Amino acid sequence: MGESFKLEKRQSLRNNEYYTMQSIFDKLYGKSTEGFKFNNLMQYVTSRNNILLAYRNIKNNKGSTTCGTDKLDISFFKDMTTEKFVKRIQNKLANYTPKSVRRVEIPKPNGKTRPLGIPCIEDRIIQQCIKQILEPICEAKFYKHSYGFRPNRSTEHAIARSMHLMNNAHLHYVVDIDIKGFFDNVSHSKLKKQIWNLGIQDKNLISIIGKILKSEIQGIGIPNKGTPQGGIISPLLSNIALNELDWWISSQWETFKTNYKYSAKSHKYRAIKKGDLKEIWLVRYADDFKIFCRDYKTAFKIFRATKMWLKERLDLDISTEKSKVTNLRKNYTEYLGFKLMVKPKHNKYVCQSRMCNKAKKITINKLKNQIKEIQKHGNSREVLKLNSMILGMHNYYKCATKITYDFREINFLVTKTLEIRLKPWISNKPQFTETYKRLYGNYKGKIRTINGITMFPIYGCKTSNAMHLHRDICNYTKPGRNKIHQNLRGYKHLIDYLLRTANDDNTAELNDNRISLIAGQQGKCYVTGLDLEIGNMECHHKKQKCDGSTDEYKNLVWICGEAHKIVHCTKLDTIKNYLGLLPLDKQGMNRVNSLRKLVGNSVI
């Protein structure tokens, strides 16, 4: 799984537990799996802890500083008392009328634009309150091979599933269906019926969702269909809209109900293969989905049936230019920035995957534009940003089997721009950080150092097998959460996070040493020895900069937020409270006291 995808998972679960909402989410998930009908969900939506959890989740989102039509962002609430804030949200939900949605046009690579709807910050918090309660109920009912906008699922899982069907199931025909303007054409009345059929039968809550769907869009008016991209609840509503399609396709083969109960699925499939049913398997990521088949006749038949079903059941049209049946032995099929086909190898066909041409062009343009930014500003922070971009691209595309060829080509095309524009700043004297050594230490190509920062090699991407989704991973069961915590061990996600969020106000030395140091500490808190978590980790100066210290490596240490409070705190009651939150042994206390002495505080 890509490291950037893992960034917020542990923090999200930690937030749930901190606000004691996890047990409620677990209960909703459990009841939903049993087919329970929920008719009093507003008690959970409007609960104090759910509202505070929504605020925390919104605050941690980088979009929280984006203003809506009322010109307000998350800072509007920062000085408001907790009780006043909770009461404000509860009162608004009691008689809900959303404010108008700000419309923004986001440029697309093809020159067109994609409309984005940005609700006001208060409406975003309310949508988050609703999403937190609906998600566990929906997760219990969603199809297992739907991967888009769902907890613990990513594009890598969708690619891994596709490659499995091509390699192991030998399904070499694929139906590509592109829904025309899906997010703009979802029927509101149909969507509310689908929500009801999932067991969400609280009329008050469905009424509020209806008002969200009908929110006035600035400059456009009140929509009569669609789930505007940009709303927090929109991705969940889109999955609800297409969940019916998932189960209909699945019922044609995978979950087809037979009168006889077979002891194993393989026995069932062997038996139904003798009848009129044809083998088909679905992989879906948001509105982008593929149906894998064994032959052209079956593929063409399901293509026509799906087109008809979408029109009759959901009133959705497909794009005739982008929708087709592909023979994977002869042509590539494009999916989520990759292109896949099967080629003969050792007397069998195996999947070969690469970056699609469009994705390659976008990647080249992004890197060239960042090189121009380095030339324009001439500072180390922009070089760190370039490194962050390269690492993110490698992490996303590394599951392609032929990715080394793609990045060699990208490197060749980008290097010319690099050498021309940044020639005055380029040095051939490397300054390897621990991060560089760990990620790219084995690469032997040309190394470039720009303004004291050694650039990550663009060509330095190795193929890594696409990871399948583990079926026992789940946010809403205790064993499922334990599995998530196990998978998150390690610290690559912390490095990726620091690279992406380098602070322009920091020195280049500090930004670079923070990354090297977190690798040196292996992602663990210096005081407790426990894994550091995004949102709860501080890079502490042992000797304070106000006392004349520097950003050098030996003056820095990574500690958790609670330990940082203890180091700087002078009030005994507060120190006692924070000590109660940390599992400190003798070594931990010694380290706390040594850090306290260095900042001028007394020993505890």
Automatic annotation (TrEMBL):
PANTHER family: NUCLEAR INTRON MATURASE 1, MITOCHONDRIAL-RELATED, PROTEIN YKFC. This is Group II intron-encoded protein LtrA. It comes from Clostridium beijerinckii. Transmembrane segments: none annotated. It comes from the Bacteria. Residues 87-340 form the Reverse transcriptase domain. InterPro entries: DNA/RNA_pol_sf, Group_II_RT_mat, GrpII_Intron_Splice-Mob/Def, HNH_nuc, RT_dom.
